[in-house]
Description:
Elements: E1 20-25, E2 28-33, H1 44-56, E3 63-68, H2 104-108, H3 112-127, E4 135-140, E5 143-145, H4 147-154, E6 157-161, E7 165-167, H5 181-189, H6 191-200, E8 204-205, H7 206-212, E9 217-219, H8 224-237, H9 240-253, H10 258-276
Parallel strand pairs: 2-3, 3-4, 4-6, 5-7, 6-9
Antiparallel strand pairs: 1-2, 7-8
Helix pairs in contact: 1-3, 4-5, 5-6, 9-10
Amino acid sequence: MNPSSRETDRKPADRIAQEVRLDRDGPVATLTLCRPAALNALTAGMFAELRAIGSDLPGDVRVVVVRGEGRAFCAGIDLALIGADPGADRGAGGGAGLGAGSGLAEIADLPPAEADARIQRFQAAFDWLRRPDLVSVAAVRGFAIGAGLQLALACDLRILADDARLAMAETSHGLVPDLGGTRRLVELVGYARALELCLTGRQVRAEEAERIGLATEIAPADRLDEAVRALVAAVLRAPRDAVVEVKALLAAASLRDFSAQEAAERAAQLRRIADLAGRGE
């Protein structure tokens, strides 16, 4: 039995070891990290489950809300995970790929292509949150550290509770952020601030996060869920196809010059006009 579950109708006994939960409410899926005693630190099984959720997500889901159970969003990876293989059997008792031999040396000893592929599997656990057909929202309370911050950065929008504390702490372990967080961080706060945050690993409080562009919105901790619901409702008011087109336009805007971006806008608008006129594909 997989120690994590994407189902919400399992018997209680099946849910004792559940580390990731996915709940559906029509077009909204809520993904919850469920290790509150460990501040939702990510295990290998959780990475594998996140990746599987992205692959299996029903096509009628429009919005994904990512949250952590308890007083923290995600305090990063479980340090025992360094070197673990997220593609291994997720039914393993301690999480996929974990064992006495796990560690940095395990990856260092792999052939380069295999080592690269192993890290890529971890990245795939977050990558799907950037898909153009989804709008992803991180609901962040408490700590979002290292991989936890990168998970929040993988989401399109971030609503922070006023008790949120963010940090890109990988360098304190002699490592670098490798879950897609570097590009999004630069996009949001600029090169100099991104470099400072990565090099120092310092904690950023909610007020500063909003000021420098890391937070879409701040809410009192006891009203975080309410703020998330309001944002999700606003997103759902727009037709899905228009949302998909505009997200794709904005996501690629910084990679194109003005001429190419305007051409992309024209193409997207013509698709929308055709669709609204009943002449789409």
